[in-house]
Amino acid sequence: MKALAASLGDPAGIGPELLCEAWAARHEASLAPFFVVGGEHLLAAAAARRGVDTPIVPIADPADAADVFTRGLPVLGDEDGEYFPGEPNASGARLALASLTRAAALTAEGKAAGIVTGPISKALLAEVGFTFPGQTEFVADACGVTAEDAVMMLAGPQLRTVPLTVHCALAEVPGRLTTDLIVRRGRIVASALARDFGLERPRLAFAALNPHAGEGGKFGDEEQRVIAPAIEALRAEGIDATGPHPADAMFAPHERGGYDVALCMYHDQALIPLKALDFDNGVNVTLGLPIIRTSPDHGTAFGIAGKRIANPGATIAAIRMASDCAARRARLS
């Protein structure tokens, strides 16, 4: 199998040091080969600052990554910069964008098995010309997929969640939720869990929007008017869909065993339980793409960058999950 491509993320954040840490842990974590796009000298400085023995090996072609992975972290390309952890700037944002752009293009062209994206600062990227709400939409666009068909899933050892609306004000959520949106995204989730995660008939549990699932219309009617019809439509297609479930109870330990993924109505409804349970091992996966894309489910953490305290668990989990999903696709092709 081809190696995975990894983008640097913001070089002032924890992304570079955790990529070095992941390579150093490759044996105990059973990681497949991956290469980083750009940042050869920056990564060497990050490894030294972190105190990990991670030799950097420049490569000229993604196909070389697997061969050199045993002796060092492969790095492709000449894009580079200075390592100033905790001091984000426009130069670093441009490097992050260049790394993301090339890594996405290489993966879309089939030269990498998948892409693992490092954490970025959306505000800083916007200052250097980034026009997307986030990396999910950027990678989707690089693959020719509309943002509506790129579905964010957060996955950890104990839970998988999908926010059906993502980066918008909470006040906008009821207006954005439609039966068609829920059905469309439910189909994508069911198909991706079967293809990429090996779940033959995935169980989808839908959260309610309102307290107590609306209490029969007392606290809102979205459950009856929008969500329940979507669930019925998915069931009619043979998808195992249940709900709408009161969100305050569906993440309890005795409830989580009854489904494979919780589809939530808004961002924090999905991310709060995932981060409470699996913060150091959470992975952001984009479903509905022709490629595999994962990312550690944490931000740049500028405040702790370069201090040797950032936990590499989510980065390692993102690399492993991308590799596992890519291997399943390869077996099916």
Number of strands: 12
Alpha carbon gyration radius = 20 Å
Number of domains: 2
How many H/I helices? 12
Task: Describe the largest sheet.
Answer: 12 strands, mixed
Identify the CATH class of the largest domain: Alpha Beta
- Output mean pLDDT: 95
The largest beta-sheet arranges its strands as 3-4-2-1-5-12-11-6-7-10-8-9
CATH-defined superfamily of the largest domain: Isopropylmalate Dehydrogenase
Gap from first CA to last CA: 12 Å
Q: What is the SS-derived class?
A: alpha/beta
Q: Helix proportion of residues, in percent? A: 25-40%
Low-confidence spans: pLDDT under 50, at least 5 residues?
none
Shape: globular
β-strand percent reads 15-25%
- The helix/strand series, from N terminus to C terminus, equals EHEHEHEHEHHEEHHEHEHEHEEH
CATH architecture of the largest domain: 3-Layer(aba) Sandwich
CATH topological fold name of the largest domain:
Isopropylmalate Dehydrogenase
Topology:
Layout: E1 4-7, H1 15-24, E2 34-37, H2 40-50, E3 56-59, H3 65-68, E4 73-76, H4 90-108, E5 115-116, H5 122-127, H6 135-142, E6 151-155, E7 160-163, H7 173-176, H8 179-197, E8 203-207, H9 222-236, E9 240-245, H10 253-256, E10 261-264, H11 267-278, E11 283-287, E12 293-296, H12 313-332
Parallel strand pairs: 1-2, 1-5, 2-4, 3-4, 5-12, 7-10, 8-9, 8-10
Antiparallel strand pairs: 6-7, 6-11, 11-12
Helix pairs in contact: 1-2, 8-9
